[in-house]
Every structure is written in C-alpha cells, then in structure tokens.
Design a protein that fits this description.
It is a single chain. By secondary structure, the chain is an alpha+beta fold. It folds into 3 domains: 5-147, no CATH class; 159-316, no CATH class; 330-442, no CATH class. Helices cover 40% and strands 18% of the residues. It contains 11 helices and 19 strands. It has helices spanning 38-55, 129-144, 164-182, 186-206, 210-232, 236-249, 261-275, 279-284, 289-296, 305-313, 318-345, and strands spanning 5-7, 68-71, 77-80, 90-92, 95-99, 109-113, 116-122, 348-352, 357-360, 366-367, 373-375, 378-382, 385-389, 393-395, 401-405, 415-416, 419-423, 427-431, 438-442. The strands form 3 sheets. A 7-stranded mixed β-sheet has the order 10-11-14-15-8-19-18, covered by helices on one side. The protein has a 6-stranded antiparallel β-sheet with strand order 1-9-12-13-17-16, with no helix packed on it. β14 and β15 (401-405) form a beta hairpin. The chain is globular, with a radius of gyration of 23 Å. It starts with a strand and ends with a strand.
Length: 444
C-alpha cells in the first residue's frame, strides 16, 4: 500500500499509506450517495476496536484504542468514531459526520484536529480484511507512538538509498530477510539473518552516518508497519506472509529513501519476536533493529565486510541485481539533471515555512544532495496559504522552505510550471535576491 504523509515541522518523519481516490457517480434524479457509507464506517470502527481490545496494550504497554476519522479525498467528507471538542461534527446514525476544511491536509496519519488527537485514514480502506486490519493497526500505532518514549533520532533523508551501491545492498538485505522468514530450519534462518546483517553493515561502511538516517525512519514507519503486521494478522503464518508481501512490493518503488522501512520493520520485528522476546524495551533504549538481531543470534561480522558481502551476494543473484541498478542509475541521472536545471539553476519561487503541514507520496522522491529533495507531487498548507505542486517541488534539507519553478506570468502570479498557490490575505509574491527569483512577503 503506497504511503503518503501529512507532516508539520516537528513530525517530518511521518510516512503512511497513499490516497486511494474513488469517483462516486451522481444519480440524475436522486441525491448523491454519501461518499463514506455510515454502515461500512461503523464496521471498520468495530474492527479497530476489536484489534486494540485483543491487544489490550500488551505489545507496547499502551492501549491502541482511540478516536478515528475517515476522510473522503474528493468530497472531504468526514465520518468519525466520536465527537470532536469544538462541535464541528454532528451525530448521525451512531457516528459523527462533517467536512474537512480546505486548509487541512488529509492522509493516513495521526493528526490534531478540532481539539482531538485522531487516527486519520483516507477513504476507501482496502477491501481485503487482513490488508485493511494491517493498515488500521499501523495507523493506530502512529496515534500513540509519542507515548512510547522512543529515541529522538534526527535524520530520514536517506540519500544513500538512491545510489547504485545503497540500493544494491538494501535489496540484498531484503532478499536475505525474505529467505530467513521462509526458512524451514533454524540453521537456514540464522544463516540468512546473518547475511541480512552483513549486507546492512557493508552499506553502513560505504555510507558513514547512514545508520542514523535509516534508524530514524525505522523507528517511525518500521515500527508502525511491524505493529500492523503483528496485530492485523491473527496467526504467525499470516504475519509472515504479510511481512514477505511488504518485502516483495517495495522493489517496485522508484525510490527507497522514505519507503524502505515498511519492508525492514516487519521482517526484523518478527525475527526478533522469535529470537529476542522483549526487544521492544531495547529499541526504546536506542538500539537498532540490526544490532538487536545481531546480538540475539551472536553474530560476529567479518573483518573485511566488502569481500564477505561480495561473496555472499552470489547466493542472492547479486550480479543480475547490480547490472539492473547500474542501468537505473543512468536513467536517474538524467532526471536529476532536469531537476537541477529547474530548481537550482533556473528562476524559482521560494516559500519559507511558518507552520507547515505537508501531504505527499514518498515512493518517488529524488534527493539532490545538499540542495534538498524533490517531491514530485505534494500539497502544503501554511500560514500563507496552500501550495499544490503536481510537477515537482524542492524541499530544503533543513525543512525551512520549499522551492518551485518561478511563476510563469508576471509578478504576483499564483501559478507556475505544474503548481498553483492560494495566498491568504496579507501575503504577496515579491522579487527574490537573485535576478528572476521570487519569494513571499507579508504586510504583517
């Protein structure tokens, strides 16, 4: 399930499943059907309640039960499990209904809205029961994760996962984790797990600091997806099947920089459940997935990681994989050159953040080194208004501002190459410091 995110500056690692848009036809002689059928929403609320009651706070020591709202992306209709604090929702048929204002983003995420801390999910949810309950449990985790005292790790850009070597070692790690989950004997499982740890160690040797970058996202989306797999699938065989599914579908993502943890989290989590019960407390203390599994299995890494990783890669069709990644890099470089011309060399509009909320799809992000990361499609709401960019925008590496191509018309224009900008009263576009550039200004 492809993810999307709704972030503010303090929550920028949140990554979640993508919007599944649906079109509901209007009957010519009758009122349009409700975008979110109340009876179906009630069923899903009951499923969520059953999941959290079955868990009873055992997995994380905190109950997952709490307020839930479903949002239809097209109509922005809301169906919620309880009332909000400000009375914006109205009781109807045992649930609460209303409309999400256009200044609010929507996503599969935890969100503060109208005085309540919600689990928010976009409509429709998956029809298949286990996929739906995996998603529900994943998002329930995000609502309570701030209560878990997880380490505050800065990072998450993961530019190393858009290089040939980084992608290569990550996919070898995934293949080894898949083999470990499928293993029929303990010996086979331990050998494959050791390979996964080896491939990760080689990646960290090649890219110093990558361990912290990856840990940041694994503490967030990795733990959330592990929770979804554990609680959304009632028996171990189904949990393993779902973890293998997460590993298999990630290879189709155009970039791994913000989606890899959906695959590694469940895989390492299930292996740790088997070999290191109680690991949840250790990860709260700052330990990484790979370090926990390495200690649990008493794995000693070889002195020469490069040679050992190259040797073990032959067991996972490494030569074919490396050739494919080399070809991809040629195509990627062409894309990077185009983005640099558009967002760095050419005239641009820079929008500085004040109270930013961001909605985007993390499957196709493109790092541009120290310049930041290109988000091919995103929606931002801030104190100055709403930016809707469908042809790319460059996020500054410190998340202080976003850059789009300069307006296509004269000064004050609210449109550009693939973007629109709705400014609030008191804000305007003015010339930037570089000739041809623009920036925001306010009369406040």
């Amino acid at each position: 399930m492809p993810p999307t995110e709704d972030l503010n500056r303090m929550e920028r690692l949140r990554v979640v499943t993508a919007l599944l848009l649906s079109t509901i036809p209007l009957a010519a002689s009758a009122q349009a059907p409700r975008p979110i059928p109340i009876e179906t929403a009630q069923t899903y609320f009951s499923e969520a309640q059953s999941l959290c009651q079955t868990d009873h706070g055992q997995l994380w020591g905190v109950s997952l039960c709490g307020p839930i709202m479903f949002v239809d992306p097209q109509s922005r209709s809301i169906v919620a499990s309880q009332a909000d604090a400000k009375g914006l929702l109205k009781a109807e048929g045992g649930v609460f209904v209303g409309t999400l204002s256009t200044d609010q983003n929507f996503a599969n995420t935890a969100v503060e809205w109208s005085g309540v801390h919600w689990t928010q999910m976009t409509w429709p949810l998956p029809e298949e029961l286990q996929l739906r309950e995996t998603l529900i449990a994943h998002e329930l985790f995000h609502r309570i994760q701030n209560q878990l005292n997880l380490p505050k790790v800065k990072g998450g850009e993961n530019a190393q996962l858009d290089t040939v070597e980084g992608r290569y070692d990550l996919q070898l790690e995934w293949r080894a984790l898949s083999r470990a989950l499928r293993a029929s004997t303990d010996e086979e499982r331990r050998e494959a797990a050791a390979d996964a740890i080896l491939f990760r160690a080689e990646r960290y040797r090649l890219f110093p600091g990558a361990d912290v970058q990856e840990q940041a996202l694994e503490l967030n989306e990795g733990l959330a997806e592990y929770t979804g797999v554990r609680l959304g699938n009632p028996i171990p065989e189904e949990q393993t099947k779902e973890a293998l599914h997460d590993l298999s579908i990630r290879g189709d993502d155009s970039t791994f920089v913000r989606s890899f943890a959906y695959a590694t989290g469940p895989a390492y989590g299930l292996l740790l459940d088997q070999y290191s019960p109680g690991w949840h407390d250790q990860i709260r203390a700052g330990q990484r997935f790979d370090a926990l599994l390495r200690n649990a299995l008493h794995i000693t890494l070889p002195t020469n990681l490069q040679v050992a990783a190259k040797s073990r890669a032959t067991q996972y069709d490494g030569a074919t994989l490396f050739a494919a990644e080399t070809q991809r890099e040629t195509r990627r470089q062409q894309i990077v050159d185009g983005y640099r011309a558009k967002f760095i060399d050419g005239p641009v509009l820079t929008l500085s953040f004040r109270n930013m909320h961001l909605q985007f799809d993390p499957r196709n992000l493109q790092p541009l080194g120290d310049a930041g990361t290109v988000y091919p499609n995103l929606r931002i709401s801030d104190d100055w208004g709403i930016l809707d960019a469908k042809s790319g925008a460059l996020m500054k590496p410190d998340w202080s501002a976003v850059v789009v191509a300069a307006p296509s018309a004269s000064k004050g224009s609210l449109v550009g190459d693939g973007w629109t900008l709705e400014l609030k009263p008191g804000w305007k576009i003015v010339p930037g410091t570089r000739k041809g550039d623009f920036m925001l200004a306010t009369s406040f």
